[in-house]
Design a protein that fits this description.
The protein is an alpha/beta fold. The chain has 16 helices and twelve strands. Strand 4 (119-124), helix 6 and strand 5 form a beta-alpha-beta unit. The protein starts with a strand and ends in an 11-residue tail after the last strand.
């Protein structure tokens, strides 16, 4: 069962809330300042920009730039709360929609005010989350029409062009760019597709401007490791990966799979890296959606990489031939290392593929596959070489599951607090 904990300083505004194990109702949310604070759209945009808030969906793009691009597109836009988590190791978005739907809706409404949008959508695949969001909309009807759109759960369904395509009545599959959704999205209108945690943090910045820098510099992470329950935690930037590994229960990890599958594998010598997007990027990795998988001392990085690549290949949208063949070939090459069937020249072939293939697919899945294989070659070359001769004993055992369960969130609502300073 996935646990929940805050690793941020006490009495600082965060998205976990006072009772993360139960759904927060409208009365409880409003009692802590939610919805009530009225801030001019221009002023709120300036606060978001000054705080340096970045998107929490994976790419980490500056939120203020995205909001301004949609606002300045020249016609009434659309805003979308994207709660579709494709990464199997991430659960933060589904938890937010189940436990704190009003925090997300508050952020969606404020994004609509900033951009001038006249309608909004909440996009997700989780049935329980959909029911909680619909109930929240009934509890407190928003100031603009908001529709819940459900989609089948796939790795690529949360990619922003796939979101727009699904809302427009098509399949949840990526489209070629340009145009991008901020230029032409839902029904042809400029569209803001924002991750639900990003919107939740906009709501917190509106309610507690004095804490905006902390709000922008903390994030939800899903931590998993061998033999110990996963942990959904809110952490401040600056925490080291070693600290997070100990909090999760894997005190001496042999490596880390970062950012879902976009950050690749890193070795134990990186454990003292600070959890900060710029620091991680300098080291050649990424926070991504905040899914971090620690390898136990007896786990094999080759086996974990093989499992990740098998998942990616199975989740291909099958729209780009280069993605189908490229991802499949990378999967097969790395998989052969775990079965003792590696053909001569494997390392050279893999090097060529992971160098030539990135950037040639529409949705980023091929990039994730190439990045995972590249990091395996760079970080664990000795293990790759040893597996050319014979797989290790760990490869014979089933790989640990990549999927993490959503923390339990009871459907009952949070009792109204007597007093509280912010919608924490």
């Amino acid at each position: 069962m996935t646990r929940i904990d805050s690793l941020t300083p006490r009495e600082t505004p965060g998205v976990l809330g006072a009772a993360p194990g139960v759904t927060e109702d409208a009365e409880a949310y409003e009692a802590t300042g939610g919805y009530r604070t009225r801030t001019a759209p221009g002023e709120l945009l300036a606060r978001v920009e000054a705080a340096g808030l970045r998107g929490r969906g994976g790419a980490g793009y500056p939120t203020a730039i995205k909001l301004r691009a949609v606002r300045d597109a020249g016609e009434p836009p659309v805003v979308v709360a994207n709660g579709e988590e494709g990464e199997p190791g991430s659960v933060k978005d589904r938890w937010l929609l189940r436990a704190r739907p009003h925090l997300v809706l508050d952020g969606l409404l404020r994004a609509a005010e900033i951009t001038g949008a006249r309608r909004g959508y909440v996009y997700l695949s989780d049935d329980t989350a959909a029911a909680r969001v619909r109930h929240a909309l009934d509890e407190r009807p928003p100031r603009l029409p908001v529709e819940v759109v459900e989609t089948p759960h796939t790795y690529v369904a949360g990619e922003e062009s796939a979101v727009v395509r699904r809302i427009n009545g098509g399949p949840a599959l990526p489209t070629a760019k340009p145009p991008r959704p901020y230029e032409e999205g839902v029904d042809g209108a400029p569209t803001l597709v924002a991750n639900v945690e990003t919107l939740a943090r906009i709501a917190l910045i509106a309610a507690r401007p004095d804490g905006r820098h902390h709000t922008a510099r903390s994030t939800l992470v899903t931590l998993a490791g061998a033999g110990t329950d996963p942990l959904l935690a809110e952490v401040s930037y600056g925490r080291t990966l070693r600290t997070l590994a100990r909090a999760q229960g894997t005190p001496e990890p042999a490596g880390v799979l970062m950012g879902g599958m976009f950050g690749g594998l890193i070795g134990p010598h990186f454990l003292d890296l600070a959890l900060d997007p710029d620091t991680l990027a300098t080291a050649g990795t990424s926070l991504g959606c905040g899914a971090i998988r620690f390898l136990g001392p007896d786990e094999c990085p080759v086996s974990l990489a093989s499992a990740a690549l098998a998942h990616l290949a199975a989740e291909s949208a099958r729209q780009c031939g280069i993605c189908v063949t490229g991802t499949g070939s990378i999967r097969d090459e790395v998989g052969s290392l775990t079965t003792g069937t590696a053909a001569p020249g494997l390392v050279s072939r893999l090097h060529r593929r992971v160098t030539a293939l990135p950037g040639r697919g529409a949705c980023g899945l091929l990039d994730a596959a190439a990045g995972t294989a590249r990091s395996l070659l760079q970080v664990f070359p000795h293990l790759v070489r040893s597996h050319l001769d014979s797989p290790c004993p760990s490869c014979a055992a089933p790989a640990a599951p990549l999927t993490v369960s959503v923390p339990a969130v009871a459907g009952r609502t949070v009792p109204r607090p007597r007093s509280a300073p912010c919608p924490r």
